[in-house]
Automatic annotation (TrEMBL):
Keyword line: Membrane, Transmembrane, Transmembrane helix
TM region positions: 12-30, 42-64, 84-103, 146-165, 198-226, 257-280, 292-309
Signal peptide start and end residues: none
Name of this chain's protein: Sporulation integral membrane protein YlbJ
Length: 310
């Protein structure tokens, strides 16, 4: 039996997607210089602010996760703590990489991986303290407090995840212990191979969404009498986090709410990071609903916690 309402909904979604794609194509054709500037800015941010901090940690994390374990069952809290420590301190999207790899290795169930994906999601310490704290906020101590705020919010959600998993159990799921590991493979070479695909994904999304944000900023400010700084910061924050915080620093550095604006933008993450997480998570069939709720929680919680710490 044909489900006509569902078929109609899929057709509408397809039409909307096609309209968006063609609209962006025309905007890129009409404003190639602005699109180029946005892509160039995204590439520079990736090379200078993301790649040096992200790549070494991803390789080491992947290498560690690909080393075969003894096969003994590990206590739940130890596995969850392992996921949190490895996933939360390497920067976006290391948490998604860590949780997905642990799910593939049979260390987590699908339900556990969904909650842990939501909790093990944080920017790297070097990015927050080095780039955001030192270069944007101009104060290392504020960078440390921002990092603490992010992890306090994540730990609150992590405790909620532990409570939910402990109370409801996982009776309907079994772990397939190490079913996907190749005995003759090299963990280090495999970590290099998979890390390169993650880095390409990060670079692609950062450059693309920076370019889109730049073009839309130009169009909106030309069509409406809206302040360029506000428009650019809001749009870049929605599309690409790193470009968003850079724009906020350029236009609102002296404003009293500037640190909390940075905290909100980093917690929002932007479509670029969400796309990275969704691609990596879906490759291992990780449930994404807890992740969506955790992002909404963090956007409110992190600036509030930072306000208390400051």
């Amino acid at each position: 039996m044909i489900d006509y309402p569902q078929q109609k909904s899929a057709s509408i979604d397809s039409m909307i997607s096609i309209a968006i794609i063609w609209g962006l194509i025309f905007l890129f054709i009409l404003q190639p210089g602005i699109a180029h500037d946005g892509a160039e800015a995204g590439a520079q941010l990736f090379v200078h602010a993301l790649l040096p901090y992200l790549l070494p940690y991803i390789i080491l994390t992947q290498w560690l996760l690909k080393i075969p374990s003894s096969g003994k069952t590990t206590r739940n809290w130890k596995r969850f703590l392992k996921a949190y420590i490895l996933g939360s301190f390497g920067g976006f999207p290391v948490g998604a990489v860590t949780v997905s790899e642990m799910l593939k290795n049979g260390e987590l169930t699908r339900r556990e991986s969904g909650y842990l994906l939501a909790a093990c999601h944080a920017p790297g310490p070097m990015f927050i303290i080095g780039f955001v704290g030192t270069e944007l906020l101009g104060d290392v101590s504020v960078g440390w407090k921002l990092l603490a705020s992010i992890h306090i919010a994540n730990l609150l959600f992590f405790l909620f995840a532990l409570f939910s998993l402990t109370n409801n159990g996982n009776k309907d799921e079994n772990r397939a212990v190490l079913t996907n590991l190749k005995l003759n493979s090299s963990p280090f070479l495999d970590s290099i191979k998979e890390s390169s695909s993650v880095i390409i994904l990060v670079a692609t999304t950062v450059i693309f969404f920076s370019s889109v944000g730049n073009v839309l900023t130009s169009v909106i400010t030309s069509a409406f009498t809206i302040d360029l700084g506000i428009t650019k910061t809001v749009l870049l924050a929605i599309f690409e986090m790193t470009s968003g915080v850079q724009s906020a620093a350029d236009h609102f550095f002296t404003h009293p709410v500037f640190p909390y604006m940075i905290a909100a933008i980093i917690s929002l993450n932007g479509l670029s990071i969400h796309m990275q997480v969704f691609v990596i998570g879906k490759s291992a069939n990780v449930p994404m609903i807890p992740y969506v709720f955790s992002r909404a929680f963090s956007v409110v919680a992190v600036p509030a916690i930072l306000y208390v710490l400051l």
